[in-house]
Design a protein that fits this description.
Number of strands: 9
Shape: globular
Strand order of the largest sheet: 5-6-7-3-8-9
Number of domains: 2
Structural class: alpha/beta
Length: about 210
């Protein structure tokens, strides 16, 4: 059953079309890898799906925006808040969850990503990998149906990449989520994806079960 339906999606910035007619249906609990050269429109597609970018033409059917979460390549954590407070933020401000309950949910999620001992740390004293794991916990806080990952390891030092990939794989194996993952970590994409969508120059060039590595 389709949880996301995209029909003839086009997105223009100034006079240039970045997406030129995307058609894609994504099923519930499916993991979709999205690959292709930089500048092809992959990140723009994710931003349109979650509503961070308006659509020039075409249509996107998704769950309500509050039922989707997104993990960005540059973490986007609040620098003045602790790891725990970052995860709690949307629960309190958007869902109006009582503070004690929000704290319990947030601590459980930090434990899930292996950071319960860093709950009171601010982002500036966390490694890049730890910051990204906090961001993943934050994205999970509102119990989303769909989780989007936009190059979640591209800003990390090589030795931190695997710790983030392990967390994403654990989520994939333990939670009934639909996942869309834009990544250049091709071995990981092959391992985790049900289908892999190849996007080039604003168009889908192919959908495969496995992307052949060079």
């Amino acid at each position: 059953m389709g949880i996301i339906k995209i029909q003839d999606l086009r997105k223009r910035f100034d006079q240039e079309f970045i997406l030129k007619g995307i058609n894609l249906e994504i099923n519930e609990r499916e993991a979709i890898g999205i690959v292709g050269k930089s500048g092809g429109g992959k990140s723009t597609l994710l931003r349109c799906i979650i509503g961070l970018e308006s659509v020039t033409s075409g249509s996107i059917e998704t769950p309500p925006k509050g039922r989707m979460g997104m993990v960005f390549q540059n973490f986007n954590l609040f620098p003045h808040k602790t790891a725990l407070q970052n995860v709690m933020e949307s629960l309190i401000t958007v869902d109006k969850t009582p503070k004690k309950a929000a704290m319990e949910i947030a601590m459980d999620l930090l434990k899930k990503v292996g950071l319960e001992d860093r709950a009171d740390y601010h982002p500036r004293v966390l490694s890049g990998g730890q910051q990204q794991r906090v961001a993943i916990a934050r994205a999970l806080a509102r119990n989303p149906e769909v989780l989007l990952f936009d190059e979640p390891t591209s800003a990390l030092d090589p030795d931190m990449v695997q710790e983030v990939l392990n967390v994403i794989e654990e989520i994939r194996n333990t939670q009934s989520l639909t996942m869309l993952i834009v990544s250049h970590e091709m071995k990981f994409v092959n391992q985790i994806s049900d289908r892999i969508v190849i996007i080039e120059d604003g168009l889908i060039k192919g959908i495969v079960k496995e992307y052949l590595l060079d």
